[in-house]
Design brief:
The complex is a heterodimer.
Chain A lengths: L1 H12 L3 H23 L2 H17 L10 H21 L8 H4 L20 H8 L4 H12 L4 H8 L3 H21 L10
Helix pairs in contact in A: 1-2, 2-3, 2-4, 3-4, 4-8, 6-9, 7-9, 8-9
Chain B lengths: L1 H11 L1 H8 L3 H13 L4 H12 L10 H25 L7 H21 L8 E5 L6 E4 L5 E4 L4 E5 L2 E8 L1 E5 L10 E4 L3 E5 L3 E5 L5 E7 L2 E5 L4 E4 L3 E6 L4 E6 L5 H4 L4 E8 H12 L2 E4 L2 H4 L2 E7 L3 H12 L1 E6 L2 E6 H4 L1
Helix pairs in contact in B: 1-4, 2-3, 5-6
The chains are: A mainly alpha, B alpha+beta.
């Protein structure tokens, strides 16, 4: 997969349009879903993603070798959509701090029940997930929904490797406490 | 600080992951003992386990038309802006016409991509399909270049672009992978072509598979279990039905790979063979009104981009007349009519 991505990226930079089509179809949905999480606005997500792909194609000659194509696309698109969100909210609030505009709500429908745990309702997990900070939610989302590694998450969110680990640790500690307080410690059942 | 180091080490340790997944007897025993001896670190151990187990999300999916529409819009915008910059700088882009043809092709491909997308991207099947008379150039993700002739189909799994299946005709320029010595396979219903890096043509049209080798060397793994080595200039034909391999040297400029340049070059083959070729490429059918006409020998190059131009050229060079009635083209001998 990794080396396939490398060839794909190389062909794309050379101007190969079927490589561009492959990039588009491979990553469109996950980028869209990520953008929607950040902005909460389907129209803005769609428009910014269209701009992003046009920009990507036109600037392909200036792009370098991507260590991870997926992480590269997430980093660049995150930057692009945050700019749009900021622009849009300029008039409605004084949101210069990004953490206040990125909500990262997670709904129960987005979760699937883990193999043997049937008695724990998705609504309960979703409720607990929404009680942790948006930043913690974003890390969880990138890690488990998009399957990015810790190093990749660090570069997407522009934070240190160690910070990602800390956030994960805090997120799961709060999740555990939250679930325990509802006496539903089934997700983290003792071995 | 100590616990942070431990957490990082546990997350990176495959044997710890095995303990979490309950998957390796030795690892389970080891970690259970280790935990007993390190009960003061139990909090960190459980956090590491929870991080590895994670939270499972269901797949998010958009309607196919939505993705296709968005891709069309993106291509439209790119094209518009390209042609705008072209006006400013005419010399720089001289091939705007071909670029829009490529775009149309890419769009067609995309429809297939989207249509075939499955849950797991690794096992996603990729299909390239050409219409009658349409020739497309592809670059697979491993760098191999494939020219797919009209009315042909090439499929492979996204995770494995060096193992393709062909139905129809294609010319392959396989990228060599010296570092890994990775092979490349083309599968047809009759045989498998196995190569390292080379240039060759494969045609599965007439209930048999023809392989013509231009460069390098390749092995044919026949469906009957035997194998055959080929050297440049060889043309091998095998059919499961006939269970017979024909191995011969090609003469210069045979029909076998010249189709790529937009010309069929016929070097002394019969009109019947020429027409079979056109039937396969354009999906039409021909009917000879005179058996003798079938045996007429054709020599020369014929443009193959357009069926009508192609037929016009054949009529002129071989003293026959072709008339279309319904879905069939009837072939008359010129003397027959007069």
């Amino acid at each position: 997969m990794q080396s396939n991505d490398e060839y794909l990226w190389y062909s794309f930079i050379k101007g190969d349009k079927s490589a561009f089509a492959t990039l588009f179809t491979t990553y469109y949905e996950s980028l869209y879903s990520y953008g929607l999480k950040i902005s909460g606005d389907p129209v803005l997500t769609k428009d910014s993603l269209q701009d992003f792909f046009v920009y990507l194609f036109q600037k392909r000659n200036a792009l370098g070798k991507a260590e991870s194509v997926k992480a590269y696309l997430f980093i660049s698109y995150r930057r692009a959509i945050l700019k749009c969100v900021k622009e849009k909210r300029k008039h409605t609030s004084n949101a210069n701090d990004l953490s206040t505009i990125v909500e990262f709500e997670i709904s129960a429908e987005q979760l699937t029940i883990k193999q043997e745990i049937t008695s724990l309702k998705n609504t309960v997990i979703a409720k607990s997930l929404n009680k942790i900070t948006p930043r913690q939610r974003e890390v969880i989302y990138l890690r488990y929904y998009n399957n990015l590694g810790i190093k990749e998450i660090a570069s997407v969110m522009n934070i240190e490797y160690q910070s990602v680990l800390n956030i994960l640790q805090k997120a799961f500690t709060s999740l555990k406490n939250e679930l325990q307080s509802q006496s539903l410690d089934i997700l983290f059942k003792e071995k | 600080m100590e616990s942070e180091k431990l957490l990082e080490a546990l997350l990176k340790d495959p044997s710890f992951k095995n303990w979490v997944d309950n998957s390796n007897e030795n690892d389970i025993i080891f970690w259970n003992l280790w935990i007993k001896d390190n009960s003061d670190k139990i909090e960190t151990i459980y956090i590491a386990r929870d991080i590895l187990l994670g939270v499972k999300f269901s797949e998010f999916s958009l309607p196919n038309e939505f993705v296709t529409n968005e891709f069309t819009s993106v291509l439209d915008r790119i094209e518009k802006e390209e042609s705008a910059s072209e006006k400013n700088n005419k010399k720089k882009f001289s091939s705007s016409k071909t670029s829009s043809i490529v775009f149309a092709g890419v769009l067609g491909l995309l429809l297939l991509f989207v249509g075939l997308k499955t849950f797991n991207t690794d096992s996603k099947e990729i299909l390239y399909k050409t219409g009658y008379g349409e020739i497309i150039n592809l670059k697979l993700s491993d760098g191999t270049i494939v020219t797919l002739n009209g009315n042909s189909e090439l499929t492979y799994l996204q995770k494995d672009p060096r193992n393709v299946t062909l139905n129809g005709e294609a010319y392959f320029k396989v990228e060599k992978k010296p570092s890994t010595n990775a092979k490349f396979w083309v599968n047809t219903r009759d045989l498998t072509v196995e190569v390292y890096g080379t240039e060759f043509n494969v045609n599965t049209r007439q209930d048999e598979t023809d392989v013509m080798l231009d460069e390098g060397s390749i092995y044919l793994l026949l469906k009957n279990g035997t194998s055959k080595k080929m050297v440049p200039g060889d043309l091998a034909t095998y059919s499961v039905k006939k269970e017979k391999i024909v191995h011969k040297k090609t003469t210069e400029n045979t029909i076998y790979s010249t189709w790529r340049d937009g010309t069929f070059i016929f070097n002394g083959i019969t009109l019947e063979e020429v027409m079979q070729n056109l039937e396969a490429t354009y999906g039409v059918s021909f009917h000879f009104l005179n058996e003798k006409t079938k045996k007429k020998i054709i020599t020369g190059g014929i443009p193959n981009a357009n069926l009508m131009i192609c037929l016009e050229a054949i009529q002129k060079s071989s003293d026959i007349r072709i008339k279309k009635e319904g879905d069939t083209f009837y072939i008359y001998n010129n003397q027959q009519i007069n």
